[in-house]
């Protein structure tokens, strides 16, 4: 039996009781882990996602294989995650993915929540003039890219570069922590 | 299990051992509608703006995130009342203990790398660091008190927000590792004890109608899908496009309806099948008082029936909060912590039966020291 979400063999067979309906899931190891990890706080059993795994449902509809392949290769310029990796793991790589993959995520989020605009609470920290994001967001987002760069520098044994990035990260964080507050 | 590893903060161990002798908030058995509503809970998912999400964070990142959040949170007023426990260095039985107590999720217990939980003395607030998101704030009250929980957790959230940069986007709200939590990042849940709806076979009908209004239903401690001991958690499924108050209402509005159904089912049972239901709860009570070996599953099921019997006045001299306490203390890790020994399944079943007999002998179970 094949996994219901990809072509790998299904090794996990999960029976979910949703209301009175028994739903059987047949998943490969990777997708089973994604599914089981969706389990909510405090030790309850995995929570069935709305409409049978809203995460993958809207993808691929109306897209050619080439378009999908190109989309899958698109990587976040801060954390480096590809859309393919996200689709496999069901977890995003960093906050910037919501900006970088906004177009791709939009139909998916609409499918899960039936909405595409937050209306709840907002951070009380001041917003810079003409800037819808909370103050400091841009430089803090850049820090994620610097961390990725630092990791790469260490792997290439370019310790000078790694040290320079580490200092810049520290300065940016310090700048935020020492920001003036009302 | 009882020794403290050298790398571990000994005060964390002391905290855990203290917990075995107290009752958690949701076991208190107090608060509005506590005959049916066990607890009300709200959790908020939050992430830092300057780090990748946990699943993509390096070991080094995770250690830094844990330290940054723990130290910054300790500076705010709400943080000063919390005790931090280094979950990464706990033994498995201790992690399981915190799961049974609903202070951490199974996911945090089983995760890798630097992670911790900070809890207050009353076990109302728990902050998980490096679960699926950098920070999960949870607040729990006994009985039906969603508004009280919300009032408490929003203050904690506001204070932490002053001390750390939350990842936030004007369109997508609070940014979370999984898009299913994005926006408010809120999960509102109420745990209900619904034995009469189960006995009268109306529970499926009720759940079908809850799914139609996009609420999720899950069992307590269930290994699979079967809810153990007729305890069910109702929670919201969506987190974006509605305000926190609207989502609180979505869950809160349905609870009085469920309470009403359950009460009517209990009345029906007493009115129409008085002898039957009296017989059922008496037998359950009898087994709990005399069994020589018993599984956790059977214990939950029987305690559920006894709990209902007490509330219907069919069993006298037993205290509801004592039943609540037994529900958690007969779970595997609690049993082993109380005994101070590691026990295999067979020995646990014997120990569980012994523990139950001891608590039910004489004048019924003793209320736990608080
Ligand atoms: Zn698969
Ligand atoms: Zn990213």
Radius of gyration of chain A: 20 Å
Order of helices and strands of chain A: EEHHHHHHH
Look at the structure and give the mean pLDDT of chain B: 88
Mean pLDDT of chain A: 75
Over the alpha carbons, how many angstroms does the gyration radius of chain B reach? 21 Å
Q: Counting H and I runs of at least 4 residues, what is the number of helices of chain A?
A: 7
Strand content of chain A: 5-15%
Helix count of chain B, per DSSP?
A: 13
Greatest interface? A-B, 67 and 77 residues
Can you tell me about this structure?
- The complex is a heterodimer of chains A (182) and B (370).
- With 182 residues, chain A is mainly alpha-helical.
- Chain A folds into three domains: 1-45, no CATH class; 62-113, no CATH class; 138-177, no CATH class.
- Chain A is built from seven helices and two strands; from the N terminus they run E-E-H-H-H-H-H-H-H.
- Chain A has a two-stranded antiparallel ribbon with strand order 1-2.
- In chain A, strand 1 and strand 2 form a beta hairpin.
- In chain A, helix 2 packs across helix 3.
- Chain A is globular.
- Residues 17-22 and 39-61 of chain A have low confidence and may be disordered.
- Chain B is an alpha+beta fold and 370 residues long.
- Chain B is built from 13 helices and ten strands.
- Chain B has helices at 10-20, 59-73, 92-100, 106-110, 146-163, 195-199, 203-212, 244-252, 255-290, 296-311, 320-329, 332-339, 345-360, and strands at 37-46, 82-86, 116-120, 125-129, 135-142, 168-169, 173-174, 186-193, 215-219, 231-236.
- In chain B, the strands form two sheets. In chain B, strands 2-3-4-5-1-8-10-9 form an eight-stranded antiparallel beta sheet, with helices on both faces. A two-stranded antiparallel sheet of chain B has the order 6-7.
- In chain B, a hairpin with a 3-residue loop joins strand 6 and strand 7.
- In chain B, helix 10 packs antiparallel against helix 11.
- In chain B, 56% of the residues are buried.
- Residues 3, 5-6, 8, 27-28, 30-31 of chain A line the site of one zinc ion.
């Amino acid at each position: 039996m094949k996994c219901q979400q990809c072509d790998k063999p299904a090794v996990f067979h999960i029976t979910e009781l949703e209301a009175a309906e028994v739903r059987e899931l047949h998943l490969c190891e990777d997708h089973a882990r994604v599914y089981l990890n969706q389990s909510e706080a405090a030790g309850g059993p995995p929570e069935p996602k709305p409409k049978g795994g809203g995460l993958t449902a809207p993808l691929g509809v109306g897209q050619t294989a080439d378009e999908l392949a190109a989309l899958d290769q698109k990587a976040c310029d801060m954390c480096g995650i590809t859309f393919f990796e996200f689709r496999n793991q069901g977890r995003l790589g960093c906050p910037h993915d919501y900006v970088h993959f906004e177009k791709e995520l939009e139909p998916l989020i609409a499918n899960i929540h039936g909405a595409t605009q937050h209306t709840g609470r907002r951070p009380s920290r001041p917003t810079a003039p003409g800037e819808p994001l909370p103050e400091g967001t841009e430089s803090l987002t850049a820090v994620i890219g610097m961390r990725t760069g630092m990791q790469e520098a260490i792997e290439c044994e370019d310790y000078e570069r790694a040290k320079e990035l580490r200092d810049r990260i520290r300065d940016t964080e310090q700048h935020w922590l020492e920001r003036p507050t009302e | 299990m009882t020794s403290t590893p050298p790398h571990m903060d000994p005060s964390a161990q002391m905290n855990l051992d203290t917990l075995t002798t107290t009752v958690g908030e949701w076991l208190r058995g107090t608060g509005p509608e506590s005959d049916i509503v066990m607890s009300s809970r709200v959790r908020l998912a939050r992430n830092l703006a300057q780090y990748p999400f946990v699943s993509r964070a390096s070991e080094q990142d995770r250690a830094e995130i844990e330290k940054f959040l723990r130290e910054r949170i300790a500076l705010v007023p709400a943080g000063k009342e919390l005790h931090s426990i280094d979950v990464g260095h706990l033994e498995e039985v201790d992690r399981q203990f915190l799961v049974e107590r609903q202070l951490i999720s199974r996911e945090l217990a089983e995760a890798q790398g630097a992670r911790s939980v900070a809890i207050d003395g009353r076990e109302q607030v728990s902050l998980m660091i490096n679960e699926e998101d950098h920070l999960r704030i949870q607040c729990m009250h006994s009985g039906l008190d969603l508004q009280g929980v919300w009032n408490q957790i929003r203050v904690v959230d506001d204070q932490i927000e002053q001390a750390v940069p939350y990842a936030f986007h004007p369109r997508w709200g609070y940014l979370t590792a999984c898009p299913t939590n994005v926006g408010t990042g809120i999960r509102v849940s109420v745990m209900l004890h619904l034995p009469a709806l189960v006995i009268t076979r109306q529970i499926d009908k009720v759940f079908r109608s809850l799914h139609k209004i996009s609420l999720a239903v899950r069992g307590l401690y269930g290994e699979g899908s079967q809810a153990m001991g007729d305890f069910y958690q109702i929670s919201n499924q969506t987190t974006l496009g509605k305000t926190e108050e609207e989502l609180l209402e979505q869950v809160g509005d349905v609870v009085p309806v469920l309470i009403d159904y359950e009460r009517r089912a209990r009345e029906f049972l007493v009115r129409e099948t008085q002898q039957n239901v009296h017989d059922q709860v008496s037998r359950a009570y009898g087994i709990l008082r005399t069994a020589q070996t018993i599984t956790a599953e059977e214990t939950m099921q029987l305690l559920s029936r006894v709990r209902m019997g007490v509330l219907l006045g069919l069993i006298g001299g037993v205290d509801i909060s004592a039943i609540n306490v037994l529900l958690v203390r007969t779970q595997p890790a609690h049993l082993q912590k109380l005994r101070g020994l590691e026990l295999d399944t067979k020995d646990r079943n014997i120990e569980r039966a012994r523990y139950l007999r001891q608590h039910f002998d004489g004048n019924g179970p003793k209320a736990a020291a608080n």
